[in-house]
Amino acid sequence: MEMIVPARVVLVLAAVVLGCAYQATRPPPPAILGAPGGPPVTSPRVRLKDGRHLAYREAGVDRKTAKYKEIAEELGIYLLYFDRAGYGDSDANPKRRLKSDATDVEELADALHFGDKFYVVGISMGGYTAWSCLNYIPRRLAGVALVVPAVNYWWPLPVNVSRTAYGKLDVRDRRTFWIAHHMPSLFYAWLTQKWFRMSPIVRGEPDAFTEKDLEILTELRRKERESGLVDPAKATQQGTYESLCRDLTILFGTWEFDPTKIKNPFPDGEGVVSIWQGYEDKIVRVEIQRYVAQKLPWIRYHEHPVAGHALPNMDGVGDEIIRELLLGETPRGLQSELDG
User: Fold this and answer.
1) How many CB atoms lie within 10 A of CB 285?
2) Staple partner for 322: which of 32, 46, 72, 232, CB 3.0–4.6 Å?
3) Across all residues in the chain, what is the average pLDDT?
């Protein structure tokens, strides 16, 4: 027996389906920090020129007496950690771009009276903020360390480099990054859907890490819980869209500049720019890192033969990163020359 469905009913059903699909692509408004019912603000913050606030945390010696002002610990100096726009206690920025991340860093440094120049360390996703600083505010930099910095598979790269690196990713990662690049308006819907398995990298699943990574990160998280200084849930308290979603669509979008064409900010050798990479890293592939370093010979490139993405948390590595950044010391035990 056949069922006859009136055309207008089909049209109504189609409209409902399309309406639901459209709503799925529209993220909810961000949670307003400090507002009734919103997340409380528990960090010190500075007010930026556009009215937003940027949150930060200080450590080390007092910044008024510190010899160096940067992000690090080993030398007992002043340390500054900050929440990028949309994360933690930093207000979301609906106009966020690569350049705005760099100007946020500059305004924060000025608000805290860092002086004319300061050091920047960008780790993992923070790597693209470090690239932005090199491109947009090079005159303010005393040195930069890019540590397992995130890469964009749609940078202007040779096909063999991008294809090799991209092909090593899990298919779920490739699918997610492809959507972030080609269909950013749908990325929030993809990030929150339940039908297909999500990227192991985005979800922070064990598949995204080496066994050594997992050992290091497990111990690190234990120490963070004991210290009470870090609350992982706080990072995305304003909503996934304003934090993770914006991060990934900016990282994998079309960049406003080509990192491989950045000019040396220290032509007279007065500062150091370095890249630190683990050969076994499953999140940031070594092929692209090597290519970028080859195109920018003024960057010091260091590759650890057995490290993964947890390279900066390995014993002694953080010390070497900071010693090279501040003192120009050559690290020991790492490959500092690119393979021929």
Assistant:
1) 20
2) 72
3) 86
H helix or E strand, kind and range, residue 291: helix 286-295
Domain range annotation of the chain:
31-327
Question: What is the mean pLDDT of the segment spanning 115-127?
Answer: 95
CB 286, CB 339: distance < 8 Å: no
| CB within 8 Å of 164: residues ≥ 6 apart | 285, 287
Contact 308, 282 (CB under 8 A): yes
- Note whether 127 and 288 are within 8 A (CB): no
Length of the chain: 340
31-327 CATH: 3.40.50.1820
Beta bridge partners of 199: none
pLDDT at 211: 95
Please check whether residue 94 is in contact with residue 29, taking contact to mean a CB–CB distance below 8 angstroms. Answer: no
Residue 233 has pLDDT above 70, yes or no: yes
Q: What single-letter amino acid sits at 169? A: L
